[in-house]
Amino acid sequence: MTQQEALFQYTLRLGDTSLIHAQRLSEWCSNGPILEEDLALTNFALDFIGRSQVLLTYAGALEGKGRTDDMLAYRRNERQYFNCLLAELPNGDFGVTMVRLLFLAAFEKELFTALQNSEDETLAALAKKTLKEVRYHLEHAADWVIRLGNGTEESHARVQKAVNELWMFTGDMFDMDETDKLLIAADIAVDLSTIKTKWDNYISGVLEAANLQQPTSSYMQSGSKNAIHTEYLGHLLGEMQYLQLAYPYAKW
Amino acid sequence: MNDTTTINAKEEALLARFEEKVQNGDAIEPRDWMPEKYRKHLIRQISQHAHSEVIGMQPEGNWVTRAPSLRAKQILLAKIQDEGGHGLYLYSACETLGISREEMIEQLQSGKAKYSNIFNYQTLNWADIGAVGWLVDGAAIVNQVSLQRTSYAPYSRAMVRICKEESFHQRQGYEIMAEMAKGTPEQSEMAQDALNRWWWPSLMMFGPHDGDSPRSADAFRWKIKRQTNDELRQKFIDKTVQQAEVIGLTIPDPDLKWNEEKQCYDYGKINWEEFNQVINGNGPCNKQRIDHHKRVHTEGAWVREAAEAYRLKTQNN
Questions:
Q1: Chain B residue with the nearest C-alpha to that of A248
Q2: Which of B36, B9, B34, B13 has the alpha carbon at shortest distance from B22?
Q3: pLDDT tens-digit profile of B106-154?
Q4: How far is Cα A46 from Cα B77, in angstroms, rounded to an integer?
Q5: Is the N or the C terminus of chain A less surrounded, counting Cβ atoms within 10 Å?
Q6: B189 and chain A: CB distance < 8 Å anywhere?
Q7: Does A182 lie at the interface with B, CB-CB under 8 angstroms?
Q8: Is A39 close to B310, i.e. CB distance below 8 A?
Q9: The domain spanning residue A163 has which CATH number?
Q10: What residues in B contact A34, CB-CB < 8 Å?
Q11: Given an 8 Å threshold on Cβ–Cβ distance, is A155 in contact with B302?
């Protein structure tokens, strides 16, 4: 693997996670528990789409085969997608969506903070710009998890269930392989083991403030770095790519 | 003079002052005295407008996850977000008249309050998203531009803001239609199909012909309404026909022709039977829209309750 190929792969992962999370959040459109929250969730979806456009366009340029952001988004199947597993999981109730956002945004905050110092100027610039959004997403998610954890008996039970169910997918975010190692050596990628402790500490703090138990199970499902996904991703892509696949020669 | 006559005399003086103010073109602010009928008329109209923005999120939301490009998805999501935002500030404008958002939602769900009939139609292909922007927002703008000068100030202010965003939506919708009209044969077929299905319901958005429009007299005298249904409908037709021609689509009305003398288009007979059917609940999506609203509201109840419980807990500490 050349450095260029590794960087393509790395950028694709970041872009895919943004895009798939955006797709999930956009499903909340007209389904929010209050109008304000409907708007907040679709606003975050817009942030994620914007980020994925930048990343997928950059990935296409790195690959050098003329693929655009849309071609990468709409013409790959589930074994060619590299988003982390958490992003693709179904929305569940509002609690599940907020816990997922909390886990992901806490990860992204540490990731992009470190990535600001990347030797790759494009990624460094994107990280800097993205951090502002990520901080806001994180604050929003943490506020809600704390509110739901301390709200009513029902909200406490629901958000605890969400934490329990999503927990086993959190390890996948921190998995690293040859791609990471090669780019870490070149000071381009972030060594995810260095941000894991920060993530752990932050999440423990929020769960404690929310009066929630941190799951003790140590089983972590991984796979996204090898494009081994949950069964949910295929359906998500089937819906998202429908028009492009049904009318392959059309421009939209 | 007994108490009742004093009160009546006072009321009459207030009413006279109110009428004079409105006739002079002065705006009415929430704290100003206003007749009960004026307040009721506005609550009905503004809440209907707010509900339309919110229910309208459903037919457009129907295509968010299937938008055919990242840019298209972004534009559509941003548009729906604008509509939701319009809903929010219209609810706020309506609250200045002494009704809560909860009450308005209750009235929507019970059927007491209405929303625009147009959202009881389906969005069946991607071109429908273009048609909704081009025709539905296009029709809404014609109406709303006129409402920028409405007499109730919070409503008028909301309209000024809303109009700016709606004209943007209308251009985006037209852009989708134009792209598709000149695209593959399947795409131009979808575009024409969408126009065929949305044209007549869009004309119905302006409401019944002037002679059949209830509640109009007060609305005009109080300058809530500034132009008649037929005047607004004509304006919409005249600007839209040319836009269809430019992109090579055909308006589905064989009677449509330019009237040189009147300098506007003559158009065919609107099917008011269909309009009345849909208004009375027998449209393709009436039940679906309200059921969806109720389901989401019920499913979100635990979140709202939790937020309220948390607010009370933290307030006490």
A1: B184
A2: B34
A3: 999 999 999 999 999 999 999 999 999 999 999 999 999 989 999 999 9
A4: 7
A5: N
A6: no
A7: no
A8: no
A9: 1.20.1260.10
A10: 300, 303-304
A11: yes
Q: Does A248 touch chain B (CB under 8 A)?
A: no
> Which among B86, B91, B297, B303 is the top mutation candidate for probing chain A, defined by the most A β-carbons within 10 Å of its own β-carbon?
B303
Query: Residue A20: closest CA among chain B residues belongs to which residue?
Result: B65
pLDDT level of residue B2 (50, 70, 90 thresholds): low
Examine residue A251 and state whether it is found in any structural domain, yes or no. Answer: no
Strand partners, B152: B28
Fold category of B34-270 in CATH: Ferritin (1.20.1260)
User: Which residues, at least 6 apart from B211, have a Cβ–Cβ distance to it below 8 Å?
Assistant: none
What DSSP element (H or E) covers A185?
helix A178-185
Produce one character per residue of B138-162: b if its CB has 16 or more CB atoms within 10 Å, e if not: bbbbbbbbbbbebbbbbbbebbeeb
What are the structure tokens assigned to B277, written together? 């059917």
Structure confidence by residue, pLDDT tens digits, A183-238: 999 999 999 999 999 999 999 999 999 999 999 989 999 999 999 999 999 999 99
**Is the distance from CB of B86 to CB of B159 less than 8 angstroms?**
no
- In total, the C-beta contacts within 8 angstroms joining chain A to chain B are 134
Tokens 């403030």, residue located: A209
Closest CA relative to residue B172, chosen from B89, B71, B86, B90:
B71
Prediction ipTM score: 0.96
Q: Is B1 on the interface with A (CB under 8 A)?
A: no
Which two structure tokens, joined as six digits, stand for B260? Answer: 């040189």
pLDDT tens figures, B221-255 = 888 888 999 999 999 999 999 999 999 999 999 99
The count of structural domains within chain A is 1
**Would you say residue A108 lies in a domain?**
yes
Task: Please answer whether residues B177 and B127 qualify as being in contact, where contact means their C-beta atoms are separated by less than 8 angstroms.
Answer: yes
Residue A252 lies in a domain: no
Neighbours of B212 (CB within 10 A): 10
* CB-based contact, B124 to chain A, within 8 Å: no
Q: Specify if A7 maps to a domain.
A: yes
Q: How far is A196 from chain B (nearest CA, A)?
A: 31
- Considering only CB atoms, which chain B residues are within 8 Å of A35? 54, 84, 87-88, 91
Contacts of B61 in chain A (CB under 8 A): 29-31
Residue of A nearest to B57 (CA): A30
B220 touches B147 (CB < 8 A): no
Contact A243 B126 (CB under 8 A): yes
Q: How far apart are CA A215 and CA A204, in angstroms?
A: 10
